[in-house]
Sequence to fold (1392 residues):
Amino acid sequence: MDILNQLQRQYTDFTALLYREGFVDENFTQVQKLQDESSPDFVVEVVSLFFEDCEKLVNNMAEALEQQDVDFKQVDSHVHQLKGSSSSMGAARIKNVCIAFKTFCEAQNREGCLRCLQQVNHEHTQLKTNLQALFTLERQIVANGGSIPVMQ
Amino acid sequence: MLFSEMAEEGRRRNYSCSPTAGTDTPLMATPLRKVCNRILRFATSCRKNTAPYGRRIFHRDVEQDEFQYGNTHCLSSYYSVFVVRLAIMAMLAILIGLLTILTWHFTRSYTKKSLNTLASSLRYELLQRPILRMWNILNSTAEITAAQVELSQYVIRRYSKTTIQADQVELYQVMRDVTWALFASRKALNAITINYRNGFVQAFHRDHRSNNTFYIYSDPRNYSINVKEPSDTNMFSSHQAWNDQSIRSNSTAIWYREPLDPTSGEKIGKASPIPPDDLINIAGLSQVPDGVASWHVAVSKYTDSPLLSAALPVWDASNKSIVAVVGVTTALYSVGQLMRELVEVHGGYIYLTSQEGYLLATSTNAPLLTNSTTRPDLIMDVDTEEPTIRMGARWLERVYGNKFPPGHVVHVENANLGKQQYYIDSFFLNLKRLPIVGVLIIPRRYIMGKVDERAFKTLVVLISASLCILVIGCVFILILTNGVSKEMKLRAELISHLDARRRAEASNNYKSQFLANMSHELRTPMAAVIGLLDILICDDCLTNEQYATVTQIRKCSTALLRLLNNILDLSKVESGKLVLEDAEFDLGRELEGLIDMFSVQCINHNVEAVLDLSDDMPKLVRGDSARVVQIFANLISNSIKFTTTGHIILRSWCENLNTCSDTQFHLDQKKMRCAIKPKLRQQGNHLKKACKKENKMIIWFEIDDTGCGIDPSKWESVFESFEQADPSTTRLHGGTGLGLCIVRTLVNKMGGEIKVVKKNGPGTLMRLYLLLKTPADGADLHCQVDFSGHNAVVLLALYGSMGRVIMSQWLRKIGLTTLGVSEWNELTRVLRKLFHARRRENGFDAQCSLNEPLKSEVLNIGDVKDLLFIIVVDVGLLDLSTDIWREQINFLDNFSGKAKFAWMLNHDTPNAIKMELRRKGHLLMVNKPLYKAKMIHILGTVMKERDTEHQKKSSNAARAMEKDGDMHECLEIDSTHFDTASSEESDTAEMGDFNSPSTFHLTDLDKEREEIACQSQCQTLECLIEMADFDAEAREDPGQKNRPNDPFSTATQNECSKLDDRNSETISHKEQVNSYSNKGGNQQKALDGLRILLAEDTPVLQRVATIMLEKMGAKVIAVGDGLQAVEALNCSLRGNVCRRESPGNDGNTGLQTDIQESQSYDLILMDCQMPKMDGYEATKAIRKSETGTHLHIPIVALTAHAMSSDEAKCLEVGMDAYLTKPIDYKLMVSTILSLTKRKA
Fold:
């Protein structure tokens, strides 16, 4: 029971931290809300989809940016996609970076794009780590027979 | 971020400007500072000139550089202007100087030349005259001398033979007479002397000073005849001896002098002895040694002027020996006199000198002789006492010395003597033995003085004139260049202003664009917040407080979203991205809905909301209904905000020539309008012509309120953004000041115009017209109704006077008799009068204290038989504070047999009253406000009812009720329809806020009516039995659910519980609940049974959307791109045939199975940006494949762009609706429902 409480508190704190630090936003909550008995692993599923997608896009963009003549249009569409998925997922930081990224793309600023790409990568890794930790906690809570606390 | 950047930019600009101000230190001396200031001012103005180059470049560092560059550039340009000015001035100065000098030089030189010529001739003349005089004197002297000699020779030859003393005496006597004759004839002569060989001397002397004449002779006794025998041979040798002897004898001889009468020559005095040679020079033999005439200048004791003496020898008969010497002496005094006279006239000095330099005559009074101790002597010209002559002589000596030029002629013009300049001219008169030099000294100023003076004056005048011209010229140049530079400055300023304006516009545009682009970013979180709040509100496990808080948050969020939407709308319009819809809509119904909506608020404010539509309004128009509604919603809410008492009237009429001959009321109004705004109207007329062709219509609107009004000076500015008529109202009323701005931009966008118009009485009158298309079929369905045949009387017992007046006017127009009362007592009196008077034939005149017109009307009505009375009663007339209203209703109930009652309810009318009314059989109830459509319905209902009564005498109330219900169903549908139609974005929430209560109240009133309404209203939704548990819950705890501030669920749940209580038909009521719950945000399983194809490439979104839709009961088939979507659809179209061949190559088995199972899709959700084939292409392809079939699958676009241009693009390619990402739960459901419903 104590362990469960502890875990639950830990989970709550951690989630609060994630929100406070801006890793995720309300949209993430919405995604979490969508998870119910009919789709128990919905969040994890979405998040992993997101990360896959994200990695793919980042690779694509990195590739595109390495070219001699950067096809900014393509990069832009990638960024747009990434922005869409990150905002749907609630990955606020990535979304913010994407917004900046998009402006650089429109300005055809390669340096800025590269910098943003790095940031995206960085944010992505961080978010991944954080969410993995979160999911681990969740799993532990579930394993201990508790319910996952709902963020207010 | 952009704002802060801009601010920073502004600050930097300030900094870049501040150094110029900083140099203005108080340490600087004032004039210097002034100059600096001027320069700086100039520099800044210059910089303004050049700055635009810099500002155009948006990079700020570059801009700063440009500024500095501009600064230096301007300084240099300032200097260049300065230099140019200087150069022009210098050129002017040189020109004028040259002119001056040339003028001066020419005039002076010509004058000088002519004067010089004149002067030299004058000088020559001047000098010539004394010399001529001199010459005359010499000549005359010579003549006299010659005459004397001739006479003497003659006389002496006659007496030469005489040897006796007597003869000798006689000779002397004759000589004396002869000489006297000569002497007397020449007054100028000084003396004539005859010196005989024997030493005898005879002389006449004239003393000019004393004017005495003397005869001088030597004693004749001393001279013997013998002595007179000269040896001829020894003539020359003895000559010396004679001479010596004579001198000796002279010296020893005694001479006598006797004064003579100057005219007659008579002796007048006694002869007195005088020493020889004392008085005069006696020319001796020595003076004529060679026997020719000799000249010399002599001096005498008694004259102060030199004397010119000539001597000639008298030869004897044989002409071999000299017998006597004749000397003639002439004073040169007269020459001096002449000179003096000349000088007196002409000025200057003249003197004559001998060749040796002895002065002979001068024009001055200076003595010519020196009174030395021995005897007077001539003085040299260089030693004379007269300084000018002395200096002149010295100058001549110094310059020429002894080497005079040939002829001794000298003309010197600028001899500087002393301190003055003189002309010196000399002439040489070469007389034999007496060469004379004449010198003329004239001060230069006598001749050239005037000229020089004039020249000097001229020069001074010229110089001063030229200086003046120069100064004036410089001033003119300054003025001219100043004017030019000022003009340039102004021009530069103008250019910079233009540039600034352009920049401001650009930045404004940037702002708008920025905002428009941000709309997605801004709306998304808000939508999320509101959506989440809705979810939260639906959550059952909230406490009351939490619920209240959440509801409050929901409201605030809605308000915030509304503000956001306002701003975004504005920016959308400003950035030109607003695209107006073009759809058919019922304008009247929209306006009625609006008034319904706002009347709630109005009643709360104790303000009457009146809708006054003219009858000629077209029923259907084409346009953007949502925007039209937005215009009026903004205007009305604005009016409500500022109106505390009175009314708000929304008038509308159609621009039509016929309208003028409408009702009296309208005519009056027209007149007034025409008078007030001919211009606007004229414009309207002008527009009208153009509109006729395009099948457009000008519809005029007026919002008339009795609020605080707007100051006329603000009539224009209230339409600016963030502008409020009175800043203080912001505190009082709140608001952003965006509403009217949006209104104006929208009105303008619709080809209309809005203005504040002068109004009689307090308040504001806003007038606008809109250009709306009428449907192409042109069937103007004017809802002209005519009840005139029905013989009905309408008694309007309404609280608000304005609405009543307008309504009664309209009723009269359509042929009904009306009566209007505004309070309960009046109503009772009128009723009594109407009915009791009839019954008893004798009136209650005493009781009836009605005012006269009403009374007469009542009496008129009373005369007519078989009338249908319709009494419209405002619930507000009842006394609701106590229980009196029950009695009032009972009282009215007395008349229910004779009249039909229609009740006007407020939104907050207590249920008890409604129940009571219903119990009493008053089934005709409508919500305030009363407008035409409602009135027509009331009338229609009543008429129908009467008809049925007439047909079936045994009609029951229930039947009537149903009829009523039918009518009200219509009413109700009207409002609900409005509700959905105007559900644009999140405005819906607030509109619904106002609107839904009225709807609910309506439904609340009449259960049966409502049920019928629900049945017809709720269409597609197969209602869920699951909802029953919701209902059950509601039944269990109605108190908890009945929360304030929750218009949706509360009302709905209330509804449910009530319906349940009444045990109505379950199905219908559940449908009802469901239909409301859709609005309320509880979309659980709303989409059950729908098959939705989701085309979305982003896996995350795909997943989220799928879950969302599945949660609502829909079946979702997700595909990854447009191509798959098209294929999937094609498959489903082909049905079973192509099941096996469905695209399985991408390995999406789920998709395959889905497709295999599928029959067809109800809807497609299509992402716009997808790989392989994007949403637009896919839609096009789908639409293309649909051509020829009757199928039309609804396609909803999903896009991250929230611009209406994107929306337009989506709709253009054939999509039916448009959703923005992230997906708004509610909006998606309503969109999907509306589309699938239509299909159904």
Q: What stands out?
A: The mean pLDDT of chain B is 69. The first strand of chain B starts at residue 189 and ends at 196. Residues 716 and 755 of chain B are 8 Å apart (CA to CA).
